[in-house]
Design brief:
The protein has helices spanning 32-41, 100-118, 123-128, 130-140, 151-154, 173-176, 239-245, 267-273, 391-395; strands at residues 2-8, 14-19, 49-52, 55-62, 65-71, 90-93, 141-142, 145-146, 192-205, 211-225, 231-236, 257-261, 276-278, 283-292, 300-309, 313-322, 329-338, 344-350, 354-358, 363-372, 376-384, 400-407, 416-422, 430-444. The radius of gyration is 27 Å and the shape is globular. The protein is built from nine helices and 24 strands. The chain is of the alpha+beta class and 458 residues long.
Length: 458
């Protein structure tokens, strides 16, 4: 139950506020910025919640805007805050028991809705659209209780068009319906479902070639163009499902961690028999996300040999190898190799692709449009150095970063076993499934420079 919402600029000035209950003094917002600045001066780690004079503050920050909720709960339960990112900080004030995750989730949904409406959520867009923002605040929360948070449903009766004499008095049925994320009466000439299984690989390799960190972050994204109120059932090669039902898996089964679903998924059924059953929103949405904390073999391996010549020049030999099956191909591969800040007079030679010097990023960029599995390529680079590089500069150099996208391939081995579509009219729908593996935070640390003078000239 929320008492008020505040949106502040970076200096703490109130841009917009909405007082739902009036049970917390509005002057409490004046304490927010001094408390945040005090914590920063003490070099404390930023926290999404803190307590001052019996009031609990929870907040998120988005594009230098503070979004603040005031609640009337004390002893707020702080659970599940790992999903917060640096760009978002949310403030809430409480006096009774509440779930902090629910509060923070609502604030994130609030910024998502504003971003969908205004494209860019910043101080200028807040000032230019204050009328619509007040309407959204009134519809998304009623007397402090969260209500509709689906942008597509809100856009049906809260528009950005100019005022008209004929306004819609009644909100869509979805607002009062159990299925609040989908409107009734949707019709398509051709019923289709597009399902993308996208996995991002996070990897960190040290200068000795040892993998220090690896994980897979996956997401199943859908585009649904279906008539009526269809019910979908999705089956995956889920290890827990096979074990609970006593069935033998055909091929590889995976064990997903940190699974998060869209609100349309029936969680009770998933907990009972691991069936993903849902009535989908119309259009594009993310059905679920998951994580696999497993040892991942580097898909694209990069080795670097660096040879420096007493501060006058530096030479690189970069070897890249695709360590996945030959039938797969990585597209738009980009290898960013850091070079000294004052490097000049670049010269490149590569067996494939193109190489460019990006002085604004202090790196060279090796682009390979198509990188087939099992292939290995070499690139050489030469730079002049106007000044002598210190040993400290060598120690602080950033790692090599690799970008890529491999279609029709998943590193975890996840598979869509079936996608059933049931609708009372009995129409036939076409499901399309696509697999994509791409880089996440994919980094390989550079080795120490050598001074042998044995590297072949370009």
């Amino acid at each position: 139950m929320a008492s008020a919402i505040f949106i502040l600029d970076l200096k703490g000035k109130v841009l917009i506020s909405r007082n739902y209950r009036g049970d917390i003094p509005m002057s409490a917002v004046e304490n927010f910025m001094p408390l945040v600045l005090e914590a920063e001066e003490e070099q404390q780690a930023p926290t999404p919640c803190f307590t001052h004079e019996g009031i609990n503050y929870l907040y998120i920050r988005h594009n230098n805007l503070y979004c603040i909720l005031w609640f009337e709960w004390l002893n707020c339960e702080i659970v599940g805050l790992d999903f917060l990112h640096n760009l978002l900080d949310v403030l809430a004030l409480t006096k009774k028991n509440s779930n902090a995750t629910t509060i923070l989730l609502f604030l994130h949904k609030l910024t998502e809705v504003f971003t969908e409406y205004f494209k860019e959520l910043e101080e200028e867009s807040i000032r230019d659209n204050f009328v619509i923002i007040y309407e959204l605040l009134d519809e998304m929360m009623d007397f402090g209780y969260p209500q509709t948070t689906e942008t597509k449903i809100l856009q049906e009766y809260i528009t950005q068009e100019s005022h008209k004499l004929e306004v819609q008095v009644r909100p869509p049925m979805a607002v009062t319906n159990a299925v609040s994320w989908r409107s009734e009466g949707i019709k398509y000439r051709k019923n289709e479902v597009f399902l993308d299984v996208i996995e991002s690989v996070n990897l960190l390799v040290n200068a000795n070639g040892n993998v220090l960190r690896s994980e897979i972050l996956g997401a199943i994204k859908m585009k649904c163009y279906l008539s009526g109120m269809p019910e979908l059932r999705l089956g995956l090669n889920d290890k827990v499902m096979f074990e609970s039902t006593g069935r033998a898996a055909r091929g590889k089964a995976i064990e997903m961690e940190d699974v998060k679903f869209h609100q349309c998924v029936r969680l009770s059924r998933f907990e009972n028999d691991r069936t993903i059953s849902f009535i989908p929103p119309d259009g594009e949405f993310e059905l679920m996300s998951y994580r696999l904390n497993t040892q991942v073999k580097p898909l694209i391996w990069v080795e670097a040999a660096v040879e420096s010549h007493t501060g006058s020049r530096v030479e690189y030999m970069i070897k890249a190898k695709a360590q996945f099956k030959r039938r797969s191909t990585a597209n738009n591969v980009e290898i960013n190799v850091p070079v000294p800040d004052d490097a000049a007079a670049p010269k490149f030679r590569s067996s494939v692709g193109s190489v460019q010097y990006a002085p604004e990023k202090s790196c060279l960029v090796w682009k390979i449009k198509q990188f087939q599995g099992g292939k290995e390529f070499i690139m050489r680079a030469h730079f002049s150095l106007p000044s002598v590089q210190s040993s400290e500069d060598q120690e602080t150099k950033p790692p090599i970063a690799v970008k890529f996208e491999i279609p029709y391939f998943t590193v975890s081995g996840i598979q869509v076993r079936y996608l059933k579509i049931v609708e009372k009219s009995g129409y036939q729908a076409l499901p399309w499934v696509r697999y994509i593996t791409q880089n996440g935070d994919y980094q390989l640390r550079m080795p120490e420079s050598i001074k042998t003078g044995n590297m072949a000239p370009i």
